Amino acid sequence: MLNHYQLPAKPEVQISQAFPDNDLIASPQAERARMLSLQEQRLEQSLKIISQVVNARVHVSYQLNDNTFITNPPAEHVSILITYSGSLNENMFISKIKTLIKKGLANVPFEDIYVVLF
Q1: pLDDT value, residue 5
Q2: Is pLDDT larger for residue 113 or for residue 16?
Q3: Is 5 a domain residue?
Q4: Structural domain contains residue 102
């Protein structure tokens, strides 16, 4: 039972561990990483309040370098891993999850959102 609900919960890795906010000069990459990490965490929190969701992880892939001269930057991709309990219509559930993520991350094309259920 404890394993099923992943208890006790391990502390989650925070982006602030990789990019501390007390740096004298924050790089644009560090600021963007912080912003995306916050968005990932907020979306995870939103997914976790759904009754069937046991746990959720959201991963956003994005360009690491800050080349402001790129006119067509590569699209971001999002992967969502959800463990759930109970029965649900997986196709409808995935569609709703993708819509939630799309509305939360404006720069991600709908077709570049991937949901995996366990």
Answers
A1: 63
A2: 113
A3: no
A4: yes
Summarised one tens digit per residue, pLDDT across range 30-80 is 777 778 888 898 999 999 999 999 999 999 987 766 565 556 667 789 999
Cβ–Cβ under 8 Å, residues 111 and 77:
no
Helix, strand, coil share of the chain (percent; to 5): 35, 20, 45
Length of the chain: 118
Number of domains observed in the structure of the chain: 1
CATH code: domain of residue 106? 3.30.300.30
Taking only the tens place, the pLDDT of each residue in 93-118 is: 999 999 999 998 888 999 999 999 99
Rounded CA-CA distance 53/75 in Å is 28
Residue 95 belongs to domain spanning? 15-117
Let me know if residue 2 belongs to a domain. Answer: no
Paired tokens of 1: 């039972």
Question: Tokens at residue 93, please?
Answer: 């559930």
